[in-house]
Amino acid sequence: MALHGEGYRRVYNDFVPLTQTLRLLSEDGDSMATGLLQQVGNIKFLSAVYLLHQVLPPLAHLSKVFQAGSVSFSAIGPAINYTLEALKTVSEQKRPLSALQKDLCTDGRLSVCDLSSPSAHQEQKLTNLTDRYVKALQENINNRFDESLPVLTAFRIFDVTAIPNRSDVGFKEYGVKDVQILAEHFFQGEPEEKKNEKKEELLSEWQKLKYNFLQMREDIPPEIAKPTNNTMTKSPTEWLPEWMLSMRWTYQHFFP
Question: I want to staple 62 with a disulfide (CB 3.0 to 4.6 A). Which of 14, 83, 85, 182 is the partner?
Fold first, then answer.
């Protein structure tokens, strides 16, 4: 029985009525209910549900960083670090096992399910499964973002709401390091002399572009600058490149 999306959470929350309903239907001769009860009414299946209940929320947090309307490149790095640390804690503290043991106790929420507490062998299997699953998730996240994270994070310069005021001490150096990262990425493969020339040109353009960003910050639509749950359509980071592309005949002349 595969669990997808919100399915695991519903099974986790409603495991007691689910198994009780299947048991009643099974007693009335419903063969499908009997088959489903055999699949879900056991420690092995329940262990998988408790594992998903612990690891999927941190992954959902990471997923939200990339959802349309809320893209924030400055939030990607912290979200990845949080997710990796949260997964590590799940494994180190054996949270799926401890939660399952607690709920199967005499006064636990699953005490009426007529399921025995996991044996020492079943406990070890769940612990090993948790360790392997968490390790695989961590490796997948690291493989996906290790090389691209600096570049993704550098795109935070396109959030016009974050740019300092012209009078602020940090305005002059704002975004310089990020632009250098982007230049190194997009000009890779160029001969060294040509690449250095392009990098200097890009940095010069960036120092001028910041002044345009200050003006664009004043022009950003209110539903994007200060969105509510009902008005959020895109983030400031998404809005700015679209706005510049719509005005490309102006901007490409000054910032080729």
Answer: 83
